[in-house]
Amino acid sequence: MSWSREVARRLGAGSGTVERWSVAPGEITARAGGHEVSLIRAVPTEEAWGRVCAALASQEVFRARVLAGELPVPVGEVCALLGVDLVPRGWDALVATCSCDRWDGVCAHLRAVAGVLGTEADRDPFTLTRWAGRDRLALRSQVMAEGAIKGPSTSEETVGDNVSEAKIEDGDDRFEHAPNSAAGFWSAPMPPGPPEIPSGAGDRVRTAAPGAVADELPPFGPLRT
Predict the structure, then answer these.
(1) Cα(46)–Cα(135) distance, rounded to whole angstroms?
(2) DSSP 171
(3) pLDDT tens-digit series, residues 169-183
């Protein structure tokens, strides 16, 4: 999955002439087909970006990619799970304006700018983070800071085994992380316990079953753990 495909999936990007293009936190401005276009999005809060950067810093694979200046689509999926959509979820999530005279929907000029957004995101994925309020340097610095809080990586850590500062220890302690923490985000929830069989269930099943079938049923008793 490429970023341009992700943009096209959510915004239905089109093609067309775009003469001018710029990205700032919260807004893309452009001139497309002789018309002025603006795409305004909500900028996530500092708290939301803090959760994202803590989660990325806590995983060796994602941390290494971001610090290397890379932003693959799976990183965007992690961001979305934590409340930061790098690509807005459709046109309803945007305030989109164009100076043309079409007011009954998304015009060709808006779609052309969305197409350029996808192309630019393939070339430099941090175009999307800049639009969402974090440029490349700020995101990288915050991920580095979050990683430093957890302590430096050890020589035993490798990308292959996906070990990080937020290493999950053996035992039930892994279920005790704060739900909003990076470690809590990556940890599995506590599995449910075995179901309890109501008293007398075996007798009721035997009564309802035909005689030949009831004879073959094993005895019902409490589950062994």
Answers:
(1) 13
(2) S
(3) 334 444 455 555 555
Residue 225's pLDDT is 52
Question: How many Cβ atoms are within 10 Å of 58's Cβ, its own excluded?
Answer: 23
> Which strand ranges, in their side-by-side order, compose the sheet holding 27-32?
18-24, 27-32, 35-40, 95-98
- DSSP character at residue 193: P
**Dihedral angle sign, alpha carbons of residues 210, 214, 217, 222:** positive
pLDDT band at 161 (very low <50, low <70, confident <90, very high): very low
Q: What's residue 171's pLDDT?
A: 40
**Secondary structure of 141-206 in HEC code, one letter for each residue:** HHHHHHHHHHCCCCCCCCCCCCCCCCCCCCCHHHHCCCCCCHHHHHCCCCCCCCCCCCCCHHHHHH
β-strand partners of 39: 28, 96
Helix (H) or strand (E) holding 55: helix 46-57
Residue entry with tokens 């053996």: 170
Residue 93 phi, psi dihedral angles, 5° rounding: -85, 0
- Tell me the pLDDT tens digit for each residue of 23-65: 999 999 999 999 999 999 999 999 999 999 999 998 888 899 9
Q: Say if CB 87 and CB 184 are below 8 A apart.
A: no
- Could you state, in order of their start, the residue ranges of all structural domains in the chain? 3-186, 196-225
Q: What is d(CA 10, CA 20) in angstroms, rounded to the nearest whole number?
A: 23
DSSP state of 96: E
